[in-house]
Amino acid sequence: MNIVCLDLEGVLVPEIWIAFSKASGIPELSVTTRDEPDYDKLMRFRIKTLKEHGLGLREIQAVIDTIDPMPGAKEFLDALREEGQTVILSDTFEEFAKPLMKKLGWPTIFCNSLEVAEDGEITGYRMRCAHSKLTTVKALQSAGYETIAFGDSFNDLEMIQASKAGFLFRTTDKIKADFPQIPAFEEYADLLEAIRKAR
């Protein structure tokens, strides 16, 4: 039995932090896991920057409400789900993901959670588990599944490399150059065909 594991931001929806960076006029918040492989370092920087500017969860959620899935993303995800078990593994947060999941037809997502003060200040975050994408893929494999995984960022590489088949999708030139052994795609149709062949 196969289960497809995929990333969310940069794959199905635009990057939330880039959208918020543009909306807030704070360019340093545009850094993502495509640029910074150390997720804890990245999140500590984001939380510090938000605090410096007096911004919190409400402001981010207001921007998220304006974000739509990428063109063709819902149809691609629907096709994956029709053909087999599919789960989104994301390092985003429950507080960010819900409106996006509604627009995608309520797929299954495993993600993290934020620590938020009563006034909406983001004070910290809680990861589901260490190396959450890799840990989840290994847990699914231990439950009898073969995994097929894909994503666009540094934090997707562990689950891609641990899977029966793995792909990069709309990633950076640097990641493609550093990992030439991983097939890379730019279009949903081509990725869907590769997944079908791997099943």
Order of helices and strands: EHHHHEHEEHEHEHEH
* Oligomeric state as shown: single chain
Query: Unreliable runs, pLDDT <50, ≥5 residues?
Result: none
In CATH terms, the superfamily of the domain at 2-12 and 69-111 and 128-198 is HAD superfamily/HAD-like
Annotated CATH architecture of the domain at 2-12 and 69-111 and 128-198: 3-Layer(aba) Sandwich
| Net shape | globular
The rounded distance between the terminal residues' Cα atoms is 9 Å
Main β sheet profile:
7 strands, mixed
Chain-averaged pLDDT: 96
Structural class: alpha/beta
CATH topology of the domain at 2-12 and 69-111 and 128-198: Rossmann fold
Helix content: 40-55%
The tally of helices reads 9
CATH class of the domain at 2-12 and 69-111 and 128-198: Alpha Beta
The Rg value, from CA coordinates, equals 17 Å
How many strand units? Answer: 7
Task: Describe the structure in brief.
With 199 residues, this protein is of the alpha/beta class. The protein has helices spanning 16-24, 39-52, 57-64, 73-83, 94-103, 132-142, 157-162, 173-178, 188-198; strands at residues 2-6, 85-93, 109-116, 122-126, 146-151, 165-169, 184-185.
Structure description:
- By secondary structure, the chain is an alpha/beta fold.
- It has a domain at 2-12 and 69-111 and 128-198: HAD superfamily/HAD-like (Rossmann fold), CATH 3.40.50.
- The protein has 9 helices and 7 strands.
- A 7-stranded mixed beta sheet has the order 4-3-2-1-5-6-7, sandwiched between helices.
- Helix 3 runs parallel beside helix 5 (94-103).
